């Protein structure tokens, strides 16, 4: 039986770094963010549903792709519209991820990583057997996000506030990787978890 591992964290917590480490070790990583981009490509069912709901003004003129910034502005300030968007995108993302998981199991993989930023917020723990949270303290999270996205402190704070606090996620996780230190320290913690749980690619 394959083990399905849920990897999560907060914005700018270093989850992608851990995800890359797992890929480099030969693990299959199914990325929710990547799936979310794939399901809204031009012509996909979710894309057509979004255009029908939000109108063509959210599209880029040159190639009809969805302008994520325009769509983001609409839903960031409107809870009802955000729910409508999530109602279209989330089921499509789940469907794609589950079919990729089934393919990985069929090809003989022992461990499959589901990289899901909003694993707890979206109540998707039913998709996985165990969970790992990548944690940083709030000061580090804020400064990394400001640096990475060129956000003001206010912009970064509001993005962080829209997610579960990382401290709460720790209490929900089966294992925690503290990513406040060096890359080497993070990798050591990951290795320890994989060994303790006897998880092979």
TrEMBL record:
GO cellular component, one term: cytoplasm
Gene that this sequence comes from: coaE
Function: Catalyzes the phosphorylation of the 3'-hydroxyl group of dephosphocoenzyme A to form coenzyme A.
EC number from the UniProt entry: 2.7.1.24
Name of the protein in its database record: Dephospho-CoA kinase
Enzyme class, spelled out: transferase
Subcellular location: Cytoplasm
The reaction(s) this protein catalyses: 3'-dephospho-CoA + ATP = ADP + CoA + H(+)
Organism phylogeny: Bacteria, Bacillati, Bacillota, Bacilli, Bacillales
Pfam families with a match to the protein in the record: CoaE
CDD domains assigned to the protein according to its UniProt record, in alphabetical order: DPCK
GO molecular function, one term: ATP binding
Protein family (similarity comment): Belongs to the CoaE family.
Listed pathway(s): Cofactor biosynthesis; coenzyme A biosynthesis; CoA from (R)-pantothenate: step 5/5
């Amino acid at each position: 039986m394959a083990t399905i591992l849920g990897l999560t964290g907060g914005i700018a917590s270093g989850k992608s770094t851990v995800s890359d480490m797992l890929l480099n070790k030969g693990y299959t990583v199914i990325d929710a963010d990547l799936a979310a981009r794939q399901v809204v490509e031009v012509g996909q069912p979710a894309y057509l549903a979004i255009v029908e709901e939000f109108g063509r003004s959210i599209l880029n003129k040159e190639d009809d792709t969805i302008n994520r910034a325009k769509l983001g502005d609409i839903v960031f300030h409107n809870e009802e519209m955000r729910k409508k968007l999530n109602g279209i995108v989330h089921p499509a993302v789940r469907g794609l991820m589950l079919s990729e998981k089934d393919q990985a199991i069929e090809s003989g993989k022992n461990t499959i990583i589901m990289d899901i930023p909003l694993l707890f917020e979206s109540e998707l723990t039913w998709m996985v057997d165990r969970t790992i949270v990548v944690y940083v303290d709030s000061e580090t999270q804020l400064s990394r996000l400001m640096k990475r996205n060129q956000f003001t402190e206010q912009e970064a704070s509001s993005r962080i506030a829209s997610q579960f606090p990382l401290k709460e996620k720790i209490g929900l996780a089966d294992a925690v990787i503290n990513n406040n230190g060096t890359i080497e320290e993070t990798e050591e913690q990951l290795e320890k978890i994989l060994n303790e749980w006897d998880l092979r690619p």
